[in-house]
Amino acid sequence: MNKLVANATEAIRGIEDNMTLMLGGFGLCGIPENSIAALVELGVTGLTCISNNAGVDDLGLGLLLQKHKIKKMISSYLGANAELERQM
Hints:
By secondary structure, the protein is α/β, with parallel strands linked by helices. The chain has four helices and three strands; from the N terminus they run αβαβαβα.
């Protein structure tokens, strides 16, 4: 089985509205920035996201939060994301 993909758009193929996603990284280190950007472009909505944190307003999961694409956020740290605080 080959798990290599050509780009982020190919990596998120099959992700649909109302799915639950686990996203790696710690803080902003090691997050799947390109895949998150591709999800924003795809326009999926109603996501449940499980991650160490919710990024910041203009980076990481903050991009999906700005567009109200995340219905539920499960994380251990909210810290620097003012948009998540507003939505909570």
